[in-house]
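Re: the multi-chain job from yesterday

Posting the exact lines I submitted so nobody has to dig through the queue logs.
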Amino acid sequence: MEAIGERLATGKTSVIQDMFKEYEGVAGTSRCYAYINSVECFTSRLLFERTLNAWSGHVPCAENRFSNYARCDNLVDFVNNVRDLLGSKHGATYYLVVDQAERLRDRGPMLLTTLLRLSELTGVDISVVLISNVVWDKFRPRHGGAADPVSVYFPYYSKEQILQVLAKDCPLEEPAGFFLTFVDAVYEVFHRNCVDLNELRHLVAMLYPKFVQPVFEKQATRNEFGRLFKLCQPYFTAASERLYLREISTSEWQKHSTVASVKNNPEDVATCIYHMAENNDGMELPHYTKYLVIAAYLASYNPSRLDVQYFARGKDPSQKRKRKGGALVAAVDEDAGARDRQQLLGPKSFAIERMLAIFYSIIAEPVDSAVDVQTQIASLITLRLLTKTSAGERLDGIKCKCNVSLEVVRGIAKSVRFDVDRYLYNFK
Amino acid sequence: MTDTYKPMDAFDSMTESTFILKPPAQQQAAAKKTASKSSSIKPISADGGFTRLLQGKESSESMELRRRLFSEMWEPLEKLLVDTEQHVNQMGVSEVCSYVDSSYTRVESVEKGQLDQPFTEMSTAVAFAGVNTGDHSKLFGSLQEQLVTGGHHVALLESQYCTSLACMLKSMLEQILASLEVSQSSKGSGRQAAAGSAKTIAYDMGLLKLWWDEASAGAGASANRVVVILQDFEGFAPMVVDDFVRIATSYCHSVPIVVVLGLATSYESIHQSLSKASISMLNVEKFNLQRSKQCIDAAIRRVLVEATDTLSFGAEAYKSLLDQFLLYNFSITGFVKKLKFAAMDFFYAQPLSVLASMLKRSASGALAVVGCPIRLSPEQLELVRMQKSVQRFLEQQLEETGDSQHFRLALSSDEYMQNSVLPQLLRRLASFRAGYCLGIDLVVALQDVVPESLQKPIRTLHYYAISQRFDDCMHWKALSAVMRRMKAPDMDRLLARINAIVEAAAIPDWDFATKNEVDIPLLLQQTGELLANPEQPANPADAGAAEPAKRVRTRTDMENRPFLLFDNNSSDHMLKALDQCCANIEAILRVSLALVGHDV
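And the result, structure tokens for all chains:
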């Protein structure tokens, strides 16, 4: 059987786990099912040994020196061990539940096929349940041979169902109707962008104390929903931009949002929230490294054919300034290729030599230590500010991409008083 | 060659022309063992590489003295640098330790209407450690040490050893199980045997849970945490970290796992590496350990400004030392290495480095001149005479005193040079160093009362002080301009601060240091009296020179440019007193920063 839900938090795992727990109680048998998380069991050996532990009821502990039921390095060992363990137990059906089963497709061509034909191979009644966000066709073994599972789709919840789930989070001391009104508002605000039930629950948990805060501060009554929503507006704005993306964590939100109160000044709330996301987030780079990042960005986003116009050190400074004018060059091509702008297409690869040429052109003072500059390039690749696109073993003609956003580059350029916008082609 | 052909040895291949023959594992292990037993760097010779200078004419005593001086100077200096770095990093490290201690404890909030969290998030500390990745090992090593001292079980992971999830978990579990083993053995429990068998079992997070359950079963609710430090987060493969986070979060409700992510760049790299689902499982708190600039400032203060009997650099050498740090890598290790190279160059290659033995710290902390333990050779004394600073000093003395006999003897008699002139020169040097430290302290005190935009770090102040004369430096002028706009209460506070600094300064003889030009303590006393009682000038000679009111209110800065006077409500006497205070403080700064300075 395969349980499929195309979205997260549709209850696949919990429903199946609860079902098997119930089944164990009803059937009076224990140890009939093994629950395996494919991410956690990242090798086949772990998967096999955990399965055997679960079916045999073996628990590793200090007494048995933390050993497993049996050592299984490959499929043959596994099949033999299953046959030895369960071959004599006729009549009972054993279940193997594999969560995030799409990960199994990367564990060799035969694993999934063998698991789905385990019953045939061992002669034991074994049923395999795969839980996945991916439809079966996407991770079906290419060579065939695997029995097609029965697919059970877990649809996403309707609004009513979501509200019912969220209503269960209502604190005991709070009126349920009031809480539901708030939950309904949160759903209406966030449901277009946030489809994960867990995330909605998180947002409700973070925002509800802010929503009722004016009630406890005697600024509004529980009946004045409009006023309460207005007072909570800065928090909703921050949540839609920062909290949902986890630029602000739960503890930071709980710690800092209590500092500001709408009672004092609503603008303070927004400032405080934005401040907590920006706090400690500065990237400080050495002086030449900043220029290297700027050069990498220019090399990644400017067409190489315009390098001479932008960066050549001509004899006539006035001509150079004219040529440098990014706006002038951009105006020519603005109508022609607005949709093909590199800014929209993302960074493109460039040769390190080109980046260095731009670096030596834009830097004001002469740089003599070539070794240190090369070391800095290596550091930038290690820090993933540059992404290497050429093959790892290639020593000459290395190509990279710039992995830094425009905002960051603008910040870096500002710190060295370099007007990066003048050198960017066709940027808006 | 048939299909059944099988290569017999490493050379027996037709497709490869380059062979890499690695030594067998046993040999490698033996080699490692031997290498670890013996020291990694063998001494070049019994003298530590010191050779006789001056074309071999240098005495063996002099060479031995240089070797001893280098050792005596560098070892405490290195310790000082390490201590300084640790001291500066201590605050950030302590913050992370406190966070780990308080993680997974429910904080009672005063806020009403709180909801329970829908799922358990894993406590995660994001430590911004700066781009100087070479220094991170020391920083995170010290964090690990402190956490272990606090009773936590810590695993420090480096990306180079964690190329896959299996390697990562193995490395993590080996470190944590080892720490558990140590704690169990200290308690006298009999679980060590089981720990030994851990090598034979698969490393996965389930094992950690089993171990944790076993370890915490007897101890009850434990305050200990399992801390996993990812020292260089950007170096880890994104998939590996993402899977690790998913696995760890599924266990954090039963094992209190705290993850410390060491970031060299910015928070954006976490968003680039981890999926939204993984990030949602983290309860992140940010910490700033990026203190390389503070470290370097503290090191420069203690080594180049305060520690007067260590190295001293000229402007160009100092700029080169600083450029390497500021322009390229922010590396403190690199800075210390360069400093050591400079010290080695001085003691290995300079015959006059033996003169450092003549400067010793007295019990009071002041720098004193003692006799040189060896006699300088004629070649060494000739080198002393060839120094431009010595030539300037002798010519200046001749101009001032007209004592040609002294001049002649200094140039012709080695005995006279060694016994009379050299101690005098070194005394001047000692006075300069002590006064210089005072001068920098005064500038720092002055900077504290000026706007932040005008404040410079001590590394820059030191550069200004050694590269420019007081009257030429724009920064001193800017500070002075702000000082001239001060109101009386601010000036009073500044004077009190300056008084405290001057009193604490260990300068044995002010008269010699200032060449009898300015008596700094007396000048400060007069300035204080003048400010307290502006109607009566401290110097009665000034009382008659009543300045016209218009002149008092038209002020100029050090470059004689007029500026707006803000404190227009003060009386003329007070304005004049303030003006005099500024002039006095400038005089003190000028004297202390240069003292007998630029001609040393």
